[in-house]
Design brief:
Helix content is 36%, strand content 21%. Strands 26, 27, 28, 29, 30 and 31 form a six-stranded mixed β-sheet that branches. Strands 2-1-24-25 form a four-stranded parallel β-sheet, with helices on one face. Bound molecules: ligand ANZ and zinc ion.
Length: 868
């Protein structure tokens, strides 16, 4: 079949994009050494690495496009840029695929990686692929195991009991996200809590530093720093011991943590967390208590559950004395809203000044005694209704604390507690140690061996490899079921011992990958010289969903690796950018099922119908793309149809990158048309033949105007790229293209020079965003030229940036009499001379004596004249 004649000047992205990708790869444009020898500035740009779920999605496209713009721009600005890519490859979905479809997790993972690598490569990202690794590669995780053993030696690891979600039917531990409405996601059985021995990384050791150093992260979004600060949660308060009227089990007193010791006189009850050891002791002899605790456990004891659950409690019958009120005793309750993991797992309830305590007190008819008087309120008449008062005021009804303001009352209360031996002031942290044990196969094995005689013994020959011959036909952890894997001799005494069958939380894998990228083939976790050269990451880019845990864990790892001599670094990420989401309208068919955008035809009036059946389709909200709503667009299909540059350009053009952007078909087409238009424009200029190499000193007006537009675009795009203003850069490039299109060719040699310059500049300015098109445009203009990817960023000529003339207001005695136009920066004498010559001003000054002259350069000259 004869192919249609090619249109003149039509950009064939399908041929061009792979050609340039091959060219960049062949020339090693993006390859850098672990320890570059030359003295050029380094720049490390990193996007959060993907989980190999199967295909890339638009969120990836946005993330990696943003990073690539930064990488290409920095390279053009003369930096040696480290821009690596890898795979966050362990995790549950691979195991689910194994159970559901019988594919081995490794096979599933590496197949997905191969697919997604191809998709990323078709995006034309300027990555150093020689650094690629997956966290499930033994050559990566063996170093993670070594790090863990070093942390263990340094006292940064602990083994202790902790509660897990237990599915009694599947006989397996569930992750929090596998518990749905209190039931196992697969079995549907009510989830139980179970105590298991688990490994913890002692992140709390670094809590003060993790908090204090947030201040140094100037290039992090404020809101991320605030989220981290809240998560770390430093508070100042007191521990207070309340003696039991009768000792119970091993308890003579109950210790509580409070941030409000100033309200101690407002106490109405004491409450224990359901998991409190005293509660457990009581439940052994009291079935009602045992039943209540079991009920709390069934509902879940996580913070999220507790915030929303209805307050529930049970009076234990025990009573405590008050440190300041020796004649009074208070009841001890067990309450579902008290968390075991916070403070001491027990509180004193002050309903007047704490909403949860108030809700609880109203429900169980416990007293409500106000002890803080709001400004302006009357002590005699002040009462609490449905709302607790937690504002400022003077303490009253409180013995020796009466009349003090909150802070003074806190201090006085703490002093009195300390004097009486009832308590002391303490700083409390919300941050908990990081439980890293997971009862799963597809994760990094925790490299220890349990020996009855020697205890916990570090594994010797790393890596401890995952066995390949595992079966998923039974619930639970395949490592545990494996016939031989866990049975090993103790490395110390040689007697039969048992391997740890837990694997690491996958957040461990992603907590140090940024460091490994500096020297991905090193024989130790990081090569110190490479790390010193490349770290910290200059620009990290990713989603806000990782604002807390991933970033905090990476900051912890940096400190733990410093403590064990692996890194000499304070903070891993000097700059952080959090991108917005990619959104799309959602569609539903007549039967209510969600439809993919591909299946829907939309019309200008906002209506839509099914492409095949013609049935009416209802158009839903524009929201973040998600599989469940089917409002996703496959990047692979877009790239095949329009090319990578179109996808990149549209994703950058729509909105500032920190905001959500709406993916629309019309937007994509607009980007595609712009590319074609730019190509035509530049092709026409190229067809005009060679332009003069230099411009003459005396440019014609249109030549000068175009050159000015070119250089102003350089300056504006540069500034925009420095500040993540990518949509602004796009707009400025559109402007320059318009200016060029509106300046037709002529016989004027300067104009030919200016048009060539504008076209060449466009090629270079679009390069970070549309790298393939850039190479193509440049080749049109100069087939001999070096790759744009290897060229420096264009420099704006200051002489062409300056505005030609400024308008200066001329005043006489502060009243505007006229204006004059002069080159910017003109000296006062010159401005005065021209101003006096202005006819209107001359008239106002006629016959008058100027006593003073006030001059604001480029703005105003004001003549003050004598009064006579
Ligand atoms: C008495 C009191 C009176 C409190 C008052 C507040 C207001 P932050 O600021 O987040 O640190 N609390 C302490 N341990 C708890 C636990 N394990 N579970 C649930 N709540 C707990 O919160 C500290 C306050 O939270 C503490 O101060 C305590 O209630 C409660 F007018 O003590 B307060
Ligand atoms: Zn042993």
């Amino acid at each position: 079949m004869a192919s249609p004649a090619p249109e003149p000047h039509r950009y064939d992205f399908a041929a061009a994009e792979p050609r340039w990708q091959r060219e960049w790869a062949a020339r090693g444009c993006f390859h850098v050494a672990d320890c570059p020898a030359d003295g050029r500035r380094k720049y490390y740009v990193l996007e959060m690495f993907p989980y190999p779920s199967g295909r890339i999605h638009m969120g990836h496209v946005r993330n990696y496009t943003l990073g690539d713009v930064v990488a290409r721009y920095q390279r053009a600005r003369g930096a040696v840029v480290l821009h690596p890519m890898g795979w966050d490859a362990f995790g549950l979905p691979a195991e689910n695929a194994a159970r559901e479809r019988g594919i081995h997790p490794a096979r599933w993972t590496y197949d997905n990686i191969a697919t997604m690598r191809g998709e990323l490569q078709r995006m034309g990202l300027s990555l150093d692929w020689s650094r690629e690794f997956a966290t499930c590669d033994p050559s990566y995780y063996r170093h993670q195991q070594a790090l863990f053993l070093d942390f263990l030696k340094a006292g940064l690891v602990e083994r202790r009991e902790a509660w897990v979600n237990w599915d009694p039917i599947d006989q397996t531990v569930l992750a929090n996200e596998q518990v749905i409405d209190g039931r196992g996601w697969r079995s549907g059985a009510p989830v139980e809590k179970k105590l298991l021995s688990q490994w913890f990384l002692k992140i709390t050791r670094f809590a003060p530093d993790l908090l204090a150093a947030l201040e140094t992260l100037e290039r992090w979004p404020e809101r991320v720093r605030v989220m981290q600060e809240k998560w770390i949660g430093r508070s100042e308060g007191a521990r207070v011991r309340f003696p039991l009227t009768e000792a119970k089990a091993d308890f003579a007193a109950i210790e509580v943590y409070t941030t409000r010791p100033d309200t101690l006189y407002g106490m109405s009850f004491l409450a224990l967390a359901p998991e409190h050891p005293l509660a457990a002791a009581l439940s052994a002899e009291n079935p009602a208590i045992a039943a209540f605790i079991a009920e709390c456990r069934r509902l879940g004891t996580s913070e999220a559950v507790i915030e929303t659950a209805e307050k529930q409690g049970l009076d234990t019958g025990l009573r405590v004395r008050h440190p300041f009120l020796p004649d009074q005793t208070f009841p001890v309750w067990i309450a579902n809203f008290v968390l075991m993991e916070y403070g001491t797992g027990a509180i004193f309830g002050c309903p007047a000044h704490d909403q949860r305590d108030l809700d609880f007190a109203r429900k169980y008819r416990l007293p409500v005694r106000p002890v803080v008087l709001p400004p302006g309120a009357e002590a005699a008449s002040f009462a609490i209704g449905d709302e607790a008062y937690d504002g400022p005021g003077a303490v009253f009804n409180s013995g020796f604390l009466d009349g003090l303001a909150a802070d003074a009352a806190k201090r006085a209360a703490i002093e009195a507690l300390a004097r009486g031996g009832h308590g002391e002031g303490v700083v409390n942290w919300r941050l908990r140690d990081w439980g890293v044990s997971r009862q799963r196969y597809w994760g990094c094995p925790i490299p220890v061996i349990h020996c009855e005689a020697c205890g916990v013994v570090p594994a010797r020959d790393l890596p401890v490899l995952l066995p390949e011959d595992v079966s998923f036909d039974r619930p639970g952890n395949p490592l545990d079921h494996h016939p031989t894997w866990k049975h090993v001799p103790c490395p110390d005494c040689g007697r039969p011992a048992r391997r740890e069958t837990d694997t690491f939380d996958t957040f461990v894998d992603s907590s140090w990958y940024f460091a490994r990228f500096c020297s991905p083939r090193a024989e130790r976790p990081v090569d110190p010289e490479a790390a010193r050269h490349w770290l910290p990451v200059d620009q990290y880019i990713g989603g806000i969903e990782h604002a807390i845990l991933h970033l905090l864990y990476s900051r912890f790892f940096t400190r733990a690796m410093r403590a064990t001599g692996h890194l000499a670094l304070d903070e891993p990420f000097a700059g952080l950018f959090t991108q917005g989401m990619v959104t799309h309208a959602s569609y539903r068919g007549a039967d209510g099922r969600w439809l993919y955008p591909d299946e829907v035809e939309t019309f200008a009036d906002g209506s839509a119908r099914h492409r095949d059946t013609g049935e009416a389709v209802s158009v839903g909200r524009v929201e973040a793309m998600s599989k469940s709503k089917r409002n996703t667009v496959d990047p692979g299909a877009i790239i095949a149809r329009y090319g990578a540059d179109t996808a990149r350009w549209f994703i950058l053009a729509d909105n500032p990158p920190e905001r959500d952007m709406e993916w629309t078909e019309s937007g994509v087409q607009g980007a595609f048309r712009f590319i074609q238009r730019l190509y035509r424009l530049v092709a026409e200029i190229a067809a005009e033949g060679a332009a003069p190499k230099v411009a003459s000193a005396n440019l014609s007006a249109p030549a000068r105007a175009l050159r000015q537009a070119t250089h102003r675009a350089i300056a504006a795009v540069t500034e925009a790229l420095e500040n993540f203003g990518f949509n602004v850069a796009v707009a400025r490039i559109h402007q320059l293209a318009n200016a060029l299109a509106e300046t037709p060719a002529g016989a004027d040699a300067d104009l030919r020079f200016a048009r060539h310059e504008a076209a060449g500049t466009l090629a270079r300015l679009v390069a970070p965003m549309m790298p393939h098109l850039a190479e193509e445009l440049q080749t049109l203009l100069d087939p001999e030229a070096r790759l744009v990817a290897e060229q420096p960023w264009p420099e704006a000529d200051p002489a062409l940036l300056a505005r030609d003339q400024v308008t200066i207001a001329v005043q006489v005695l502060g009243k505007l009499r006229g204006t004059v136009s002069l080159p910017p920066g003109s000296p006062e004498a010159e401005v005065a001379q021209q101003a006096r010559a202005e006819p209107n001003v001359a008239k106002a000054l006629a016959g008058r004596r100027v006593v003073k002259q006030i001059f604001v350069p480029d703005r105003i000259i004001n003549f003050v004249i004598a009064a006579d």
